[in-house]
User: Fold these one by one.
Assistant:
Number 1:
Amino acid sequence: WAFPGGSQQGLSRRPFLWTSKDGARDLGTFSAKHSWDCASVLLGDGRVLGDSAGHSFLWGTESGMQDIGFPPGTSGARPVSANDRGEVLCRAAKLVENSRGGVASLGAPFLWAEEGGFTALHGPAGFDDVRPVGIAADGTVLLHATKPPDRTIRACYLLRDGKLQSLSAPPDWSSALYLGMNARGLLVGIA
């Protein structure tokens, strides 16, 4: 990300797009109130997705920055991955009261598409914090899930055609954390 004026003072950042032809191009912001913008997903056609103050945005050379909002019942959303079918995987935040009387932000996976907007994805039963990691070309989604109360119980799942598949650890290992997925559906992680 870029800090206007070359400084982190004032804690503002702006999204940019770099090309070999033009170098870094400032993508702008919604308004002066939104000073912590982030570009996070680059689509195959050169458009950029990101977030600004909890609102997801879509930026294009012709259209500029467009607010695509966030899913109903959530406090914000951030694009994390996309595929060439135009499906954008987003992590939405749901604010809930925690056991200490404070507020916790729990993850919820959503797909966004220009036609249809946001669609909720279901996670595994018993897990209240489900975070999307990646999406393959065929729409398969990699998810991380944690359980209350201490969030130490973590599991990884694939969501394919509406069905969840639990991902196990490699042979001779007791646990695994899957960290990424490419367009072909290949997974990487640590054990």
Number 2:
Amino acid sequence: SITSLVCLADNSLIKTTQYQGIFLFMVGGITFRSVGGEILMPAGMRFQNSDNTIITWDSYGVYKSVDAGNNWKLCLARGTSSNNGLSISPSSNSNWVICLSSNRKYYITSNAGDNWSELSYAAMNYANEIFYHPANSNYLYLKSYYDIVRTQDNGVNWSLLTSPLPGEALELLTFSPSNQDQIYASANSCL
């Protein structure tokens, strides 16, 4: 399945297909080529319009490209632990955070992936996504299938939030633009 689709400054498109590759589409999608080779089989991708940096991750690490995917740099090697979700700070394109699925760890960088700090969360056993708050980069949210936890102090303390869909497996989260404390969630059976 397609995990991400991004339009670059020259109107070419980059598409990631979960664990199948990264593809650059040119000339309105008529021609395309692989830009991740057989090395990158991403779980997801983020794009920074400000400097055309593409960030992707898979089970082995986090990678970045500053040239539309022609060249990739390994930023964080994690062996075979599943990397689930990467978020870019709303206040600085150099601040990224990624969570690992099973060991209560997440990693944060303040220099676009050059150096990383390992941190942990104890409020839940498993996380499959991580988010910066859109208006306050001190707030981080971790989502599992049934729970959401939040830190308001860059990960020092975590608190369990009331699920917006109790008993439902959470798929996607987003924040209300008019009330940043309001979280919307979707599940298989409801929004």
Number 3:
Amino acid sequence: LVRPDYSYSAKVGTEYNPFAHFHGAEEEDDIVLLQLQSPLLRKFDLANRRQHRAQLYTQFTPRDDVTFGLTGTYGLADYDASPQGLQSDERFSIGTDGSWQMNDRTRWASYYTYEKIRARQLSRFRTRAVAGGVTTVFDDPLNDWNSTTLDRVNTFGGSLNYAIRPGRWDSTFTVTRQIAHGQTLASETPG
């Protein structure tokens, strides 16, 4: 069995309100703190984006009681309409799985997946100063910064399924181990 898949999706024309975080703020201190968030910042789950995703799944059954699978996925999301915030999200994963029907009551399954996720973000550090009871927010492009985050995740797992009374009572013992490493590289703010 070989099953390829490709999907494209776009979120375009959303009515994103960059000042929504002010709604409900009543205290002057809260409003001053909220001003530190740039109206250019787009929250990634609300921002316009274009996404591509390709996947390939293969399955091999050498015997009726044994199955092996291999899968690979690549995804890219582009947030091209966001002046600040998440700019791109690129994901790659590859994995394998297998199962063995040991007898009519017992089945063993195991899997491994490797994932690599790279995200790029732009933002601006906004500062404030208070003089004579007046708060001024400084929004200087010299305070722009960017970062790239790289996550690598290894996931191992296995399960043992035993039918105590076939068709009525089943028991499953599952073990999963996940090891993740994250790294963020950021530029300095010159201003």
Number 4:
Amino acid sequence: VNWVRTPGIFNEVESISRQGSLTLGLTLSSNISERIDFTISSRTTYSDVQNTIQTGLDQNYLVQTNTARLNFILGPGFVLRSRVSHQYYEGLSEGFSPNFLLWNGGIAKKFMKDDRAELELSFYDLLFLNRSVTRTVSDVYIQDFETNVLLHYALLTFTYNLRKFDGPQGQLQPNLPQEMMRTQGWDQRRP
């Protein structure tokens, strides 16, 4: 739940814009096997805008994002990744296309000891449909606009996972101040 109150002056008269929003989300995530994991999620925000002076700006609108993500281990060290997002807007100004799909995917190869390194080739916006739609609400206007975004591209990424810092024989390092106090015979309970 979100509540925004924006005061302003319009034609020398005090104006107040009130925007209330309610957001609900649901996520389902699973590792159904050692080779496959997925996540499906949905998030919906409903907003109500009211203005004390310019009641023509009173509006309701809805923004919904649905996402599906899949990781699939193909074979020794190979991972296929896919992510699809659907954006839906309702209640925007005329002329805006509020419905689009964004699909990103990639393939990765894990290597080195314990698969600590990974080289991934990712592809963004495979359907060439990416958009950025934004709504601005103020005390005197509501503006919807679409901006240019980076369209489809490929990215080569190298990742090295440091994991945890191990001590001798794979043991975790002790808490040094406590270990030093114990080995030096110092007892915290003494004055």
